[in-house]
Specification:
This is Ring-1,2-phenylacetyl-CoA epoxidase subunit PaaA. One of its GO terms (molecular function) is phenylacetyl-CoA 1,2-epoxidase activity. It comes from Ruegeria marina. It contains 14 helices and two strands, in the order αααααααααααββααα. With 325 residues, the chain is mainly α. It has one domain: Ferritin, core subunit, four-helix bundle (Ferritin), CATH 1.20.1260.10. A hairpin with a 4-residue loop joins β1 and β2. It is globular and about 75 Å long. The chain binds fe (ii) ion (2 copies). One fe (ii) ion (FE2) binds next to α7 and α8. The site of one fe (ii) ion (FE2) has 5 residues, from α7 and α8.
C-alpha cells in the first residue's frame, strides 16, 4: 500500500485541486483523513508522523534503562509514569498515521529494518542518573519547542494528537528539571554528574531541531502546507534562549563557550553543533543505534505470540458471528 502511494504521487495532483487545497490550509481549516490531499502531503505526513511515533517508542529505551536504578521510590514512580506516557504518545501518533492509509505494522517494520528513522538523540547513552534529569529537561524541552506549534498543524488527527501530547510533555520537562536541580544543589560529586550530563547532552539536544535552514531539504513546502510551523533555526534559537537562563539558575557552567547574549539581535549567540556527527548518527553510526534497533526487534519478535493469539481470537469470534447470522 505504501509503495503504491509513493508510485502514484506524480499523477493525481491537478493544479485546480491543489489550489483549492492550499486555499483551505491558508484559511486555517483542518484537513481530515477522508478529504482529498496531494500525495506529497500524504507522504510527507506519513514520514513525519511515523518518525515522530518511532521517536516516542525508541525514546523509552534510554530512560527505561534507569527505572530499576532510580535513587528513590518517588523518582522511580515519576520515571515509570513518564516512560509510560511516551508509549501512549507513540500510540496516538501511530493512530494518526494510520488515518493516512499506512498500517501500524508497516510503519513498525520500516523502523525495524532501518527504512524509517527516529530522532538522533536516542542514539546517545544515558550514563548516570543525572542524565535522566538532563533528558527530561533538555530533550523533552526541545521536543516541546517543536510540538507546541504543531498543535496548530493543518492535518486534523496530527493536530489533535499533539494537543494531548503537549499536556504531558510539560510534566516531563518539569520532572527533569527538578531531578537535575536536586543534583546541581547536591554534593560536589552529584554536581559534577549534573555538569557532565549537561555537557554531553547539550549539542545532541540542539541537533534535535534538524539541520540548519540553509541545508534543510523539506522545509519550504512543509511550511506552506502547515506541516511545519517554524524553521529549524527559529526553534533552535528559542530553545537556547529559554535554556541558558535555566543553566545559570542551576549554577552550572555553560556547556558551550560560544554562548553569549547578543544585545543587537536580542538573542543568545551559540555554537552550531557538529553537523557531520549528526549525519553520521542518522546513518546508523551513533553510539547506541545498533542497541536501540536490536532492542526494538527483540521486543517485536518476543511479542509475536501475543499478536498471533489476539489475531486467532479475533478470527474465531468473527467466524462465530458469521455462523450465527
Ligand atoms: Fe513524548
Ligand atoms: Fe516526553
Amino acid at each position: 500500500m505504501y509503495a503504491q502511494m509513493v508510485k502514484s504521487e506524480a499523477t493525481n495532483d491537478d493544479p485546480e485541486r491543489l489550489a483549492a487545497f492550499q486555499a483551505r490550509i491558508d484559511a486555517g481549516e483542518k484537513i481530515e483523513p477522508k478529504d482529498w490531499m496531494p500525495e506529497g502531503y500524504r507522504k510527507t505526513l506519513i514520514r513525519q508522523i511515523g518518525q515522530h511515533a518511532h521517536s516516542e517508542i525508541v525514546g523509552q529505551l534510554p530512560e527505561g534503562n534507569w527505572i530499576t536504578r532510580a535513587p528513590t521510590l518517588e523518582r522511580k514512580a515519576i520515571l515509570l509514569a513518564k516512560v509510560q506516557d511516551e508509549a501512549g504518545h507513540g500510540l496516538y501518533l501511530y493512530c494518526a498515521a494510520e488515518t493516512l492509509g499506512v498500517s501500524r505494522d508497516e510503519l513498525t517494520e520500516m523502523l525495524l529494518d532501518g527504512r524509517m528513522k527516529y530522532s538522533s538523540i536516542f542514539n546517545y547513552p544515558t550514563l548516570n542518573w543525572a542524565d535522566i534529569g538532563a533528558v527530561g529537561w533538555l530533550v523533552d524541552g526541545a521536543a516541546i519547542m517543536n510540538q507546541v506549534p504543531l498543535q496548530r498543524t493543518s492535518f486534523g488527527p496530527y493536530s489533535r494528537a499533539m494537543i494531548r501530547i503537549c499536556k504531558e510533555e510539560s510534566f516531563h520537562q518539569r520532572q527533569g528539571y527538578d531531578a537535575i536541580r536536586k543534583m546541581a544543589e547536591g554534593t560536589p560529586e552529584q554536581r559534577r554528574m549534573a555538569q557532565d550530563a549537561l555537557n554531553r547532552l547539550w549539542f545532541p539536544s540542539l541537533m534535535m531541531f534538524g539541520p540548519s535552514d540553509k541545508d534543510s531539504v523539506h522545509s519550504e513546502q512543509s511550511m506552506k502546507w502547515k506541516i511545519k510551523m517554524n524553521t529549524n533555526d527559529e526553534l533552535r534559537q528559542k530553545f537556547v534562549d529559554q535554556t541558558v537562563p535555566q543553566i545559570e539558575f542551576l549554577g552550572l557552567d555553560l556547556p558551550d563557550p560560544g554562548i553569549k547574549w547578543n544585545e543587537e539581535r536580542g538573542h543568545y549567540d551559540y555554537t552550531d553543533p557538529d553537523w557531520s556527527e549528526f549525519y553520521d548518527v542518522i546513518k546508523g553510526n551513533g553510539p547506541c543505534n545498533t542497541d536501540r534497533l536490536a532492542a526494538r526487534n527483540k521486543a517485536w519478535d518476543d511479542g509475536k505470540w501475543v499478536r498471533d493469539g489476539l489475531l486467532a481470537h479475533a478470527r474465531k469470534k468473527a467466524a462465530a458471528r458469521v455462523a450465527a447470522e
